[in-house]
């Protein structure tokens, strides 16, 4: 600890938290550091006692601080605590009346079991140590052991998480003010001077946007984006549209040809192109089957069974992936979560697309819409005749917890905002930074959750079928099944200097949709928030722009706060998302016909997104199925005889399953129907699709069309191998 820090800490303690001041004055360490005379310490101790009541009373009226953090998310409250521990005076402003975001609002199954926990230290580790201590201090069994950095489940009750969070904020001397909804920002050039809220105006030297939505960032005029990038923008194979889930063989339209409720579109858009849509929001429900602590889940008002016709059709078609996940918690409780692998769950697909742009009243309305859907979905599972008995019984005994969220009718207060605005800052974290180039020169934290996105759209296809789009199933190491560890650079939480020079953005940080699908976890935001808080305190102390803070100084203080900045030594296995090199058609045996050799008619789009491919890429018909797209190959066989015909394509459930292919060679005519949803042989690029007879003295013509197809028709390459 540095000598100036002692005096800043004492000053902050006297003004903000007398109990902390008393602890410091009793400390031999602070006495030795500051070389404060004993008589002065005694005088200060007496002064603290006499001013305790007045000090706490004045905190509620406090409007100025060294650092103001807007948003008490896990990243927000960790930023506030970290800045305060560096000696800064800190005000934490929360727009709602709930402090702690999801970490205290129902997300009680810590997702760090999929992360490299040895890299999650500092405040994250301390918070969990204290959660466990809360149990053991009450002579209860420790729910987990934070000292063991393995993949075990770390679970806790929401009220314990809230108690620990408020204790840490209080001990750090952070002034916490709720129901301060941001209305506007005043600036002097690139510098924020004050925040105008629904309940007061606040000034500071440095500001931290700790909101899930990036509200302060946007109000300050910093560039941002929303939704998904196209695949070409940052070279991300996981960008654009994603279809890992199986298509449901059900009709998504009513008798009048209109979309059924809970269907968001009949056209998802081009597969390689981005959009302004985001992954689904939901609640993390705190539930129980314990009759002594159980309150019945409320029946939804104005429930209309017709809203769930599409789910009803899915059940009738034999779909079993309908429902929501339940994670066991201490206290005989359960954490209910939207099931990423389900076709229908408690996430309201498409319901959060306008959350970022809505005002306070608008967000309350969207929040209520999500609550209504959640209650309706559960009611449907419990009452609709089509629901299988086993499914109904699984949820029938559940109720809300009597000892949780009493001020919110025992319903989770925090909507799970999985992603929202993202800053366009000094460095944009993208897929390559997670999978290929994890090391940075200016790390403030290490993140390691798998790339993982919930549904974005639910699409009724005009040719038949319904498919969920946008899911990214966890991209992680094979063994152990953890995400890839990578640096979060300081530059990623910094806006452009000309736009704002005293703002740090650790939650709505600068990254792509693919990257936020990994960064979006509370554990990551806690360590990133801590990094932002330390930086904010240093900037306030040194009176420099956030972009001008020397990284060496920041690194020193981060390490002093037990932040881990060195990547772990792990072997990174290649995955499907780290694509292999293209295949050279000239090096393949037999007759090879690349898509570049075909004469194309109609609409074809070129792509390189699904790998491996033959040659320079492949073409696809963008799922038009109109019979107007065709590809014709013309060649002469080197000798007459029977050949095995093979096709190269990227197998996927979104591909067409009945692609017509005709072969004409002299007197020989043959028709083949190809199913491109069929997987390729393991380790192979081509799949045999039939045998054909070729004549050497005439031109052979092979034609592929999209006549009557449903799904993408992939045109990559054909191969003909002589049969001996």
Task: Describe the overall structure.
Among the domains are: 1-60, no CATH class; 61-227 and 423-443 and 481-560, FAD/NAD(P)-binding domain; 585-722, Jelly Rolls (Sandwich). The strands form 11 sheets. Strands 1, 2, 5, 6, 7, 8 and 24 form a 7-stranded mixed sheet that branches. The protein has a 5-stranded antiparallel sheet with strand order 12-15-11-14-13, with no helix packed on it. It contains 16 helices and 36 strands. The relative contact order is 0.12. The model is unreliable at 1-36, 38-57 and 571-579 (pLDDT under 50). With 724 residues, it is of the alpha+beta class. The protein starts with a helix and ends with a strand.
The CATH superfamily label of the domain at 61-227 and 423-443 and 481-560 reads: FAD/NAD(P)-binding domain
> Given the helix and strand composition, which structural class is it?
alpha+beta
Whole-number average pLDDT?
Answer: 90
State the CATH class of the domain at 61-227 and 423-443 and 481-560: Alpha Beta
The DSSP helix count reads: 16
